[in-house]
Amino acid sequence: MKVAGRVVVVTGAGSGMGRELTLELLRRGARVAAVDLRAESLDETSRLAAAGPRLSTHVLDVTDRTAVDALPEAVVAAHGVVDAIVNNAGIIQPFVRIEELDYPAFERVMDVNFWGTVHMVKAFLPHLRRRTEAHIANVSSMGGFLPVPGQVAYGASKAAVKLLTEGLYAELLETNVGVSVIMPGAVATNIAGNSGVAAPGGTDAAAAQAAAARTLPAAEAARIMVDGIEQDRLHVYVGRDSRVMGAAVRLAPKQATHLIQRQMKRLLAD
Ligand SMILES: NC(=O)c1ccc[n+]([C@@H]2O[C@H](COP(=O)([O-])OP(=O)(O)OC[C@H]3O[C@@H](n4cnc5c(N)ncnc54)[C@H](O)[C@@H]3O)[C@@H](O)[C@H]2O)c1
């Protein structure tokens, strides 16, 4: 679905890829309803966009089903219609093994990443079905197809998003609604800080610099995502790491798992 002139809802629009998605969609001529938990971050996105009435902001927690159910009406009030949703809001878990991960942390990750996406899909699908052409894009992760020690609950939540989205694609084939699952690799954002999680590998400058060198800028990730939506692709791999590991996990799943385990184990306490 070409996004020019369309109304697109973006969750997690106050930071990282959600903010860059908002800016990219506006640049390509879309109208955007930007959604986030944090009012101040949405204000900053709005300031950067300087898009006037083409951008509306909605402070909301995607885990709150009642609030999400009321969102389509607010978006329609602001823009007249709604053509697409990008379910991008997400959090990671503390970098610990599953033995040390407490239930509240496990449940929070599932609530935001999986149930937040379900709430949005259920609330908006009846509206999207009424358009001539519409689109749903759900942000999963490289961690949704590749097991990462220390992020097992996160991976499970993103694997659930992946299969939910592939199932939706199958159910909505031959309808007006296109569906994409987006799988970013490592992207430079403040997801650890925003998730209330200490970054693995410490916070010293050298570690931060090394990590930054391995990650894709969020603006580039956003361009790849919007291209994927505009090309109606089912699977959108974002970054070389995601593309390469996507192939590796299909060809040699055990070896790919061992490779990531070796890279991650030094980041986890013994
Ligand atoms: N950064 C990466 O390397 C990476 C890799 C793969 C996938 N992802 C996924 O990409 C998406 C965007 O991540 P990011 O790295 O830009 O993170 P980010 O922390 O920069 O942005 C996420 C935004 O979501 C918002 N949010 C969190 N919980 C929310 C809730 N309950 N309701 C509404 N908004 C909420 C946050 O306030 C934040 O503004 C996430 O789904 C993440 O899991 C990120």
Topology:
Elements (H helix, E strand, L loop, with lengths): L6 E5 L4 H12 L3 E6 L2 H11 L5 E5 L5 H15 L4 E4 L15 H27 L4 E6 L12 H21 L4 E8 L2 E2 L2 H4 L10 H9 L2 E2 H13 L4 E4 L1 H12 L1 H13 L5
Parallel strand pairs: 1-2, 1-4, 2-3, 4-5, 5-6, 6-9, 7-8
Helix pairs in contact: 1-2, 1-8, 3-4, 4-5, 9-10
The structure holds nicotinamide-adenine-dinucleotide.
Description:
This protein has 270 residues and is of the alpha/beta class. Helix content is 51%, strand content 16%. The radius of gyration is 18 Å and the shape is globular. The termini are far apart. Nicotinamide-adenine-dinucleotide is lined by residues 11-12, 14-18, 36-38, 41, 61-63, 88-91, 112, 116, 139, 141-142, 184, 186-187, 189-191, 194.
Tell me the CATH superfamily. Answer: NAD(P)-binding Rossmann-like Domain
Total helical segments: 10
CATH class reads Alpha Beta
Give the ligands present: nicotinamide-adenine-dinucleotide
Number of strands: 9
From the 3D coordinates, which CATH architecture would you assign?
3-Layer(aba) Sandwich
Strand order of the largest sheet: 3-2-1-4-5-6-9
Helix/strand structural class: alpha/beta
pLDDT averaged over residues: 95
Distance between the termini: 48 Å
Q: What name is given to the CATH topology?
A: Rossmann fold
Keywords:
Rossmann fold, binds nicotinamide-adenine-dinucleotide, 9 strands, 270 residues, alpha/beta
